[in-house]
């Protein structure tokens, strides 16, 4: 595992239940502000269920991809209390 991957997983692991972060925010926090696509690639390869990849969304509030499928991602987010309207996160926790 690369140092970049470790940073990404560490950041995502700290996203609280009921909250979300954007790929762009995670890239900034990892010290690579323009690497938001790389963040998505790293999360797509995640095999650890303790890393809540479903809590990462696009900067425009859209759901974005998920290894288990978009419907599963929406289900998991709603289960945690995230409000989703018209395919976008409408939560005050989005950054």
Automatic annotation (TrEMBL):
Domain of life: Bacteria
NCBIfam families tied to this protein: ogt
The name this protein goes by in its record: Methylated-DNA-[protein]-cysteine S-methyltransferase DNA binding domain-containing protein
UniProt keyword annotations, A-Z: DNA damage, DNA repair, Methyltransferase, Transferase
InterPro entries in the record: MethylDNA_cys_MeTrfase_AS (IPR001497), MethylDNA_cys_MeTrfase_DNA-bd (IPR014048), MethylDNA_cys_MeTrfase_DNAb (IPR036217), WH-like_DNA-bd_sf (IPR036388)
Molecular function terms, GO-annotated: methylated-DNA-[protein]-cysteine S-methyltransferase activity
Gene Ontology biological-process annotations: DNA repair; methylation
Domain Methylated-DNA-[protein]-cysteine S-methyltransferase DNA binding: 3-82
Origin species: Candidatus Nealsonbacteria bacterium CG_4_8_14_3_um_filter_37_36
Reactions mediated catalytically: a 4-O-methyl-thymidine in DNA + L-cysteinyl-[protein] = a thymidine in DNA + S-methyl-L-cysteinyl-[protein]; a 6-O-methyl-2'-deoxyguanosine in DNA + L-cysteinyl-[protein] = S-methyl-L-cysteinyl-[protein] + a 2'-deoxyguanosine in DNA
């Amino acid at each position: 595992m690369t140092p970049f991957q470790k940073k990404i997983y560490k950041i995502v692991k700290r996203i609280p239940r009921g909250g979300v972060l954007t790929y762009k925010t995670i890239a900034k926090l990892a010290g690579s502000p323009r690497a938001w696509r790389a963040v998505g690639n790293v999360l797509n390869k995640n095999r650890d269920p303790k890393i809540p990849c479903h809590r990462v969304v696009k900067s425009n509030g859209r759901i974005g991809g998920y290894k288990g499928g978009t419907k599963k991602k929406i289900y998991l987010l709603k289960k945690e209390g995230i409000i989703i309207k018209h395919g976008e996160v409408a939560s005050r926790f989005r950054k």
